[in-house]
């Protein structure tokens, strides 16, 4: 629901059709599926699915983000971020679980905030305590 | 006390109305029955029912009648505590599904059992309300501009459906492909993902188009674009069937 910040929203969520052009902030508590074109921020408490026909110019923030279309802007996924073979991302991505499929285009900085994984790794590999983030750059 | 507004009927439908009156009498919930005429519109009769102090106003007939009664109940402060009952004439209709009635007997029984549910309704500014759905349709697809909260959009559509809650569906049928291509897809069992439909939920939407497309509720034109539609959350008390499956609205 746009502008609705209820955490446990149900229903099909927001769907932006291929023939839609939006300007502004698209915010929904439930899932968002985008087939169309958006210039602005896209925020969801659950998942955002950017399909092959979609183009987004602006930041994306959600729990699970799935990119098969084109995105120009930063992406923050608290859960999982997946860039499909048809996906094109130009901007920084932040997620603790990133998957970039073969064929995908990614130009930007990837930040993976470490949580439990780091703690597990710390037991085996000695690390300096200041390095709490791993940064990858692919261009 | 119950106040029944019956749609004027002739022939078979008249017999049906007599049957309804009999059932209501048997259930012990008979009340004053009125029908609209050229002298008294549905809105005037509803207003009269409110003034007379009836606690329950029942719309007996098509969706259009119920929506007109709702318009009066929602726009009058004095009608705040008045409960709406509905006996639809089509039990496959959206309104029948909303209140969870399957036939005449269940609709009349629901009135007797009087289980209340507060529902969302939509307001087409300035003063039209509806419980079912509003439809904007055109033969050829049109460019429609819409604004939702801090979001502005443009869409090519030939059908827009607005439902209480405020759910908005945009659909452009022309982009689905030609009839032969759809036939071949059907023939070879190829399923095409519908990427041309849009679905939004909000509290307020403004719709504009170059042509003043009509907004229809229950087949009747109630407004023309540009229109602003609001969701009025939980303002209408409606009698629903006891065994109705609880929905969001």
From TrEMBL, chain A:
The record, for Pfam families, names:
Bactofilin
Region named Disordered: 113-139
Q: Where are the compositionally biased (Basic and acidic residues) regions?
A: 120-130
InterPro entries, per the entry: BacA/B (IPR007607)
Q: Which residues cross the membrane?
A: none
Q: What family is reported?
A: Belongs to the bactofilin family.
Full protein name: Integral membrane protein CcmA involved in cell shape determination
UniProtKB/TrEMBL annotation, chain B:
Organism annotation: Berkelbacteria bacterium GW2011_GWA1_39_10
Top-level taxon of the source organism: Bacteria
Q: Cite the DAGKc domain residue spans from the record.
A: 17-124
Q: Which Pfam families match?
A: DAGK_cat
SUPFAM superfamilies for this protein: NAD kinase/diacylglycerol kinase-like (SSF111331)
* Any GO molecular function: kinase activity
List, alphabetically, the InterPro entries matched: ATP-NAD_kinase_N, Diacylglycerol_kinase_cat_dom, NAD/diacylglycerol_kinase_sf
The molecule here is called DAGKc domain-containing protein
